[in-house]
Amino acid sequence: MKSGAEAGAMVREPEAEGFGNRKLIRPSLSREPGVERRERPAERPAPSNGAPKKPAPAEQTHAETFYYQKQMQSKTPMVVVTREGEELHGIIEWYDKTCIKLNRDAGQSNLLVYKSAIRYMYKEGESIK
User: Fold this and answer.
1) Within 10 A of 99 (CB to CB), how many other CB atoms are there?
2) Which residues of 57-66 are buried (b: 16+ CB within 10 A; e: fewer)?
3) Which residue from 65, 78, 81 is spatially nearest to 120, judged by alpha carbons?
4) Alpha helices in the chain (DSSP H)
5) CA gap 95, 12 in Å, rounded
6) Where do the domains of the chain lie?
7) Whole-angstrom distance, CA of residue 51 vs CA of residue 41
8) The pLDDT value given to residue 46
9) Do the beta carbons of residue 104 and residue 88 sit within 8 Å?
10) d(Cα 111, Cα 100) in Å, to the nearest integer?
11) How far is CA 116 from the centre of its chain?
12) Where does residue 92 rank: exposed (0-12), middle (13-18), buried (19+ CB within 10 A)?
């Protein structure tokens, strides 16, 4: 049976001769006189298969704009649910980057609702579940 010191110790194989004292060689990052660096091209060339490069997707899809315009034109009764859970019923009269104006029934005041305060909205009469 092996002793405790021998049982816990791992036997390591000796390293090969050429790998023990390897020197790390790094290129000089400073510009040396007489040595020219090749500059990168401003744009990458088109793929060699002849297909044009696929354009990046649009930043904005305008889906929100389309939805608001459609509801305004058809004067669809909407339910706007705020972050606090309050339901506001009315027709969207106009919108901008930060707000929507909600026209409500006679006897109730019209509201200017910040978009950041809206949790969600749906057409009145539709079930949301």
Assistant:
1) 16
2) eeeeeeeeee
3) 81
4) 4-8, 63-74
5) 74
6) 83-129
7) 20
8) 58
9) yes
10) 8
11) 18
12) buried
6: pLDDT confidence band, cut at 50, 70 and 90?
low
Helix (H) or strand (E) holding 93: strand 87-95
**Which H or E element spans position 81?**
strand 77-82
pLDDT per residue over 72-105, tens digit each?
999 999 999 999 999 999 999 999 999 999 999 8
d(CA 25, CA 27): 7
Amino acid at 74: S
The torsion of the CA quartet 30, 31, 32, 36, rounded to 10 degrees, works out to 140
Place of tokens 């791992």: 10
The backbone region for 34, taken as left when phi is positive above 0, alpha when psi lies in -120 to 50, beta otherwise, is left
- Interatomic CA distance for residues 82 and 76, integer angstroms: 19
Give the Cβ contact number of residue 82 at 10 Å. 15
